[in-house]
Every structure is written in structure tokens, then in C-alpha cells.
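User: Quick sanity check before I run a bigger batch. Here is a single chain. Can you write out its predicted 3D structure?
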Amino acid sequence: ALAQLTRDLLLTQSIFKGKAFTIPVDDDGDLEVMEPPVFMDVRNTDPSQLLLNQDVVDQVRTSLWGPIQNTEACRTNRIPLKRGVLLEGPYGCGKSLTASITAKLAQDNGWTFINLDKVQGLKAALEFANRYQPAVIFAEDIDRLVEERDEDANDLINTIDGVLSKHAEVMVVLTTNHIEKIQQVMLRPGRLDAVISIPAPDSPTVQALVRMYGRNTIAKNTDLSEIGDMLAGQIPATVREVVERSKLAMIVRGETEVTAAALKLSAVGMTAHLDLLNRKKDAPTEAEKLHSALKSLVSGGGSDPEKLADKLSNQMAQGTQRIRREVSNANDPCMRLYSRLGFEPVDEALEYIEMTWRAA
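Assistant: Done. Predicted structure follows.
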């Protein structure tokens, strides 16, 4: 009777039940139960600020928020509340904000929300959540744990798949920025009930983001379709920066509204900024190709210029400049090699190649 009373008190008067909090995890994946949890302040969390592509919103509302907001209906219709949901997509597209809104909805509907500061604590959190169900566990960057099918990954898979009772009311929400790193076995239905892809926003979503960030500085009748098309595929942080630059320009010019033209100008500047970040390295020059090939051969051993020349001549790309001058010192190994190859080193490549050869 005392044990049952203790269990009843834990369930009805626990500081955890029905609350949203972050619980620390140690390096071994155990919950640091002696450390106080950090309760999340979700009072000002606004679900309307989560602006995703419409098809993504529909999936989130159904697969993630549906069971939380319609718990009794799910029970009545025998829809399991033990669920696994994976949110995947590029960094900065709304996965963390989705978690914050989920925390608010959970607390508003009597669910316990457990946010892990380390994904390694997921197994321990599942056992912990079993005492305070219905509960949601949120763990970011799951790929850090399961990209290799090692002992930890197997343990996690088995835990989600069957350690909890099939009647448990515990929802596990995982996120990843690298879906390609997750083992296929983790993605099978029955282990994860829903995989929701959250891509960068499309044009209509960009327009909604622009209006949200611009607030009352953008007139309601301003046509944002062009700016939406220009920034489609960019993360919300980029869209916000475009709006902030436009608002700053508005202030500098002494105006009171952000125009579509100002937004377009800021977007053009942002595109140039992003092009610098995404700029690909220039293709190697013929001199760099020659240096790289020779360095590879020399580092592989051997000191016979004739043999190395035979190997190198087979690797060199067509179109390398032909030698146009007399070899000044036929006894020098480098000069003998150049002569045998029939190539003319250009610019600084001569110095690099000679240093490589002499160091071998």
C-alpha cells in the first residue's frame, strides 16, 4: 500500500509531470538526476511564428501535434500514443522552433515534455518518461549516435522498437541535419512512425516570413512575389537579414515604409554575399597539376628519373605546354626529368617541383 501511495504521489504531485524542461545528460548517457532540471518558459511561444511550406505544416499538425492536442480521441480510436517522429532538413529551417512550439502544446495539454541536452541520454530518458506519461522526448542531432550501427545504435533501436510497452504513451521526436548519415534500419516504419522533411522555405513561405520580420514597416498591399521567388530556398535567417537591411536603409533615407524595390536591392546584395561563401575553388592550373603528380610519385619512393618520367608522362593531362628551350644542365635530375617528359614548367611550378625532387 505504501509503495502504491508513493507511485500515486509521484504521478500526481511530481514537479516534472505536465511540465516542459531540459534535463542534463552525463558523458555516459545517464541522466544527471542530482542536477536540477531547467524548466522551459513557453508562455510567450507563438505557434503562428512557425512558418513552413504548407505541406510540411500539414504533416507536423497531423503526425506531431495531432496526438498531443487530441489525446482522448486517439485513446478512444485506439491510435497508439507511443510514436517516433524524425524531423530532417537543412540547418536553420525550423526544427528547433518546432520543438519549442511542441513543448508549449505539450504543457498546455497535460503532456510532459523532456528536452535532452545530449542525444546519448535517449535510452535513459525513455525510462524516465515512462513514469510521467503521456510524454514527449525531444533529442536533436540523432545522427551523432546512429550513423554507425554500433552497440549504442542497436541499443537505441531496440529501445524505441520494443523496450517500452506497446501501450506506453511516450512520443520520441528526433532531429537531424544529415539524413544520409542515418542507418536505413532506423527509418523503417514501425521504428519511426513519421519522417517529416523540413526544407528551406518556398516562395509563399518566404513572403510570409518577410511580412513577419517586417511587421508594420511593409504595407499590406506591397507585392512580395518577386522577392519570394528571389529568396526561395534560403534559410529563414537569410530572409530575416534581407528584411533587416531593408529596414536599416529605410531609416537612413528617412522613410517610414520598406518597399518591394528596397527588399529586392537587399536581396541582390545578399545573393552576392552568399555567392562568396559558396564560391568553388578554381580548377588547378597545368603547373599545379604537374607539381601534384610529381609530388605523388616522388613520395611513393624511387629515385630513377627515367622510371618516374615514364609513370608521370602517363598521368599528365593533354594540352600541357611543350618545352621551348634547351635544357641547361643535362646532368641535373630535375632537368633530365623535364626533358624526358617534354613539358615546360611554368611560373612558380619550377621552384616547387625542384624543391620536391631535391627533398625526396
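Residues 250 and 268 are 16 Å apart (CA to CA).

User: Great, the batch can go ahead then.
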